[in-house]
Write a structure and sequence with these properties.
The protein is α/β, with parallel strands linked by helices. It is 38% helix and 10% strand.
């Protein structure tokens, strides 16, 4: 028994074998290394290094074929067995190991799918299989061509070769064709419009047409007795006084209309200025025409209707005459036209009409006025 212990401690071998020094600590260390593989230290290049040992940093790594005598010698010199803590060593080597794995993964991802990160390798696959959604291109603005002038009845004839310019009126013949243009007086057809003046004048013209003769009777003006209708008490009915009370049929009216004057005073110069403003507005829009040869022996609504249709102008139309009763009778049956003497021309009539047609006599009388 003592010989066996001596052989174990001294390392003597049986006859014919080389003597080897093996201790119990070395045997236990070999067994632990077989059961739990030692972690590997990562290098800067990303390749894994050899097994991590408890040797000093400057010591050379032990060869795989070396005898276990070095382990025994180290244990004997230190006085204690080698401290082997695989768990602690594994924790210490974890950051270096993660760094090596990240470097290797990033290098592999750069080779397989450029532009993908190492944290999400699946993103490289998705980007490789499915292209990134591009922004929809802006729609091109398609502009519609300008509308062509309508080929209405008489439009080609009305256009003619002479187009009226500013402060000009078109002269048309009996067929509605434009034959020439005439100049308009700037002091009558070139006045800037003022809304307040036009509004006041139109109100005054409308109020002047009101007769203001509406009238009602109060209870004092109604004919009837002033006696009490029946006694105050004993009849069972509501008490009543005069038969002319406003609550009874045939009685007086409370706050009813009385004859009054609705006229609004407008200075003569303001009224004339408003008429010039209205004429200037129609001249600016090119809606002033002079009808040449519009002379009728007898009233003929058909002739005037054909002329206005051939001119192809905006309605309603105001036909201005000067002592031409036959023409006035020919126009008054047209629903879209109105006739007026040049002396009776008002601001309201001009503003209500969208086109003004003057006879030669009326245009000359207006120029001389």
């Amino acid at each position: 028994m003592a010989a066996d212990e001596t052989n174990e401690t001294s390392g003597t071998a049986a006859p014919g074998e080389e003597p080897q020094a093996v201790s119990k600590d070395a045997v236990q260390a070999d067994a632990s290394e077989k059961k739990a593989p030692r972690p590997r230290r990562a290098s800067a290049t990303g390749d894994e290094a050899g097994p991590v040992t408890d040797e000093p940093a400057g010591a050379a790594p032990a060869e795989s074929g070396a005898a276990p005598e070095a382990v025994d010698t180290a244990s004997e010199t230190s006085g204690a067995g080698p401290e082997k803590k695989p768990a602690a060593a594994g924790k210490a080597a974890t950051p270096a190991k993660k760094t090596a794995r990240r470097a290797a993964t990033s290098a592999a991802g750069a080779k397989k799918a450029p532009g993908t990160s190492a944290a999400d390798p699946a993103a490289g696959k998705r980007s490789a299989t499915k292209p990134a959604a591009a922004r929809p291109a802006a729609k091109a603005v398609v502009r519609k061509p300008a509308a062509k002038p309508s080929a209405s009845k008489g439009a080609g004839d009305t256009a003619g070769t002479v187009a009226p310019g500013p402060l000009q009126a078109a002269v048309v013949d009996t067929e509605g064709r434009v034959v020439e243009t005439v100049d308009l007086a700037a002091e009558r057809f070139g006045v800037a419009a003022k809304t307040g003046v036009l509004h006041l004048t139109v109100r005054a013209e409308q109020a002047a047409r009101r007769s203001g003769t509406a009238s009602t009777k109060t209870r004092g003006e109604v004919a009837g007795t002033t006696a009490k209708m029946y006694r105050q008490k004993g009849t069972g009915r509501a008490r009543a006084g005069s038969v002319k009370s406003p609550v009874r049929t045939g009685g007086g009216t409370v706050f009813g209309p009385k004859p009054r004057d609705f006229s609004i005073k407008v200075n003569r110069k303001v009224a004339r200025q408003a008429l010039r403003m209205a004429l200037s507005n129609r001249a600016d829009s090119g809606a002033v025409y002079v009808a040449r040869g519009l002379e009728l022996d007898s009233p003929s609504t058909r002739s005037v209707h054909r002329l206005l249709v051939a001119m192809d102008i905006a309605t309603p139309v105001l036909v201005v005459t000067h002592d031409e009763d036959v023409l006035i009778k020919s126009v008054r049956n047209l629903a879209y036209a109105q006739a007026s003497e040049v002396r009776d021309l008002t601001t309201e009539k001009v503003l209500r009409a969208r086109s003004l047609v003057f006879t030669e006599k009326a245009f000359a009388a207006l120029d001389q006025a």
